[in-house]
Amino acid sequence: MDTLLDFLGTFFFAVSGSLLAAHRGFDIVGSVLLGFLTGLGGGVIRDLILGVTPTAFSQPIYLLAPLAAAGLVFFLYAAVERLPRTLLVFDAAGLGLFCTTGATKALDLGMNPVAAALLGVTTGVGGGLLRDVVANRDPQLFDPNDLYAIPAMLGAAIITAAWFVGWRHPVTQLAVGVLVFAFRLASLRFRWRAPRAVARRRHRT
Amino acid sequence: MDTLLDFLGTFFFAVSGSLLAAHRGFDIVGSVLLGFLTGLGGGVIRDLILGVTPTAFSQPIYLLAPLAAAGLVFFLYAAVERLPRTLLVFDAAGLGLFCTTGATKALDLGMNPVAAALLGVTTGVGGGLLRDVVANRDPQLFDPNDLYAIPAMLGAAIITAAWFVGWRHPVTQLAVGVLVFAFRLASLRFRWRAPRAVARRRHRT
Amino acid sequence: MDTLLDFLGTFFFAVSGSLLAAHRGFDIVGSVLLGFLTGLGGGVIRDLILGVTPTAFSQPIYLLAPLAAAGLVFFLYAAVERLPRTLLVFDAAGLGLFCTTGATKALDLGMNPVAAALLGVTTGVGGGLLRDVVANRDPQLFDPNDLYAIPAMLGAAIITAAWFVGWRHPVTQLAVGVLVFAFRLASLRFRWRAPRAVARRRHRT
């Protein structure tokens, strides 16, 4: 179940990568590679920091996720073409699942609670950040028009707190993942924003 | 011999980095740094995933490669100026050597075959991807007008298969490296392409 | 004292990240995240290469640095608004401290002198490079109009030499850090430049 959630998160993120590849006119190989990087990049960073072999390499079954994602985008792009909305929904689903599975894995491996929550956030936002950086566009993570990191932080914090009071069931993870997903989509829908980086409104773009 | 091929691959990639630095008007230090990142970046990523100290740091002799590359570009840029073709040739040579040495190292360290082939590809495309990302341009890896990852995948797969049937001689590596190099250049020359990321032709750029 | 210098370097780099976030119109969360990436990214890369748990995760106290930096920028942006000069000064302070603490940590963990000096440079330039890459702008590291890597290389080399003759006092680190800081600022003030990447002046931009 734990692995299933992680696999699902990988798939959702991989779809967001393949959609971006389609949007940018990449070929099918680029679609697989960008899906791979988006779906598995956050987990690779997490595992390197945890000092374990990245699951993308120790468990090759995960490679099916970017392959399936690229296939889905290849055949169903016409149906899901309402970009960038579709991309954002898949990205949000990946975010929700990864911030919870990332924090859980860090806790299971004995990290302190602050680091575990931080690693949950890193896992959640890392893949999307890599996707945007290698596709040479401004990262969604830094878009000031909605909330991205805050839902992930909240989710990772809840999971960490729940872990310490003994709620370690995958259903808890799933529930928190859905909460993060809903929070993220709501911030897009209702244009929730965080305060600007400066107290005064003036800034140069 | 194994180390020699790896060193040569580092040098070829480093030349591609230094050529890009020259092309962008960087200074000689930027030329060395971009050569370093291109030549040694893929191997550093590979070694971090394998959990060993990156050779760039454990064997400082490798640092001679980016220094030599920057020197070569400094003195011979006029002769090799037909950019970007020259850059592409050096990049292809690095790709050919690295996808084979990367896969071999992973196999020697006990990775499963799928992960070993994947690490060969990662080693091959990683340095060039870092080069393009830090130089803030669209990665060559994602250019839909030729084949880049497919030759690397093929080479890494052949090396992995050969390793399992007992052909582990450096000459095998060299031969496969040359094959990948030729395949990559042929794809540039004859404009071989992979199918687009979407079945329908329509896409927005 | 050692930790204090490292914390200060983290803070200075984090301020440079938060200033860039303010400059780009990011929100307060983006300011914290970019400060985190700039302040702690170089050390995370260093620690991954050294094969130890990154201090950003093992010692959560370091997280106070990007929080304080984002707070400082939030309230005092009007006072420090003379961008990009202010950003460059904080960046230079981080560079000075990190190239010395990075090399020292590598030496303490038994790296060879060349690798230690190189890791000092990596720690010094890594955070700023990550900052510029994720903010999708040309890295300061490669700006040919001043010297960036050379002061860091000099500082890391001095620290390494000093370590081997037995001068391992934090005051040595601080002194070398100040030297690097002054060297970097002087190169900005007096427009010191390194030779171009090519002997001939002609190059295409």
3D structure, described in words:
3 copies of one chain form a homotrimer. Chain A is mostly helical and 205 residues long. Chain A has 8 helices and no strands. The first copy, chain A, has one domain (2-189). In chain A, 70% of the residues lie in helices and 0% in strands. In chain A, α2 (28-50) packs antiparallel against α4 (64-76), α2 (28-50) runs parallel beside α5 and α2 runs antiparallel to α6 (113-134). Chains in contact: A-B, A-C, B-C. The A-B interface holds A 18, 21-31, 33-34, 44, 48, 51, 53-54, 56-58, 60, 63, 70, 73-75, 77-78, 83, 133-136 and B 48-49, 51, 111-112, 114-115, 118-119, 125, 129, 133, 136-139, 141-142, 144, 147-150, 193-200, 203-205.
Q: How far apart are the termini of chain A?
A: 45 Å
Helices of chain A, by number, come to 8
Reported for the largest beta sheet of chain A, the result is:
none
Q: What integer is the average pLDDT of chain A?
A: 91
Largest interface: A-B, 35 and 34 residues
- The number of E-state strands of chain A comes to 0
Model regions low in confidence, pLDDT < 50 over at least 5 residues of chain A:
none
Give a nutshell description of this structure.
3 copies of one chain form a homotrimer. Chain A has 205 residues and is mainly alpha-helical. Chain A has helices at 2-23, 28-50, 55-58, 64-76, 85-108, 113-134, 149-164, 170-189.
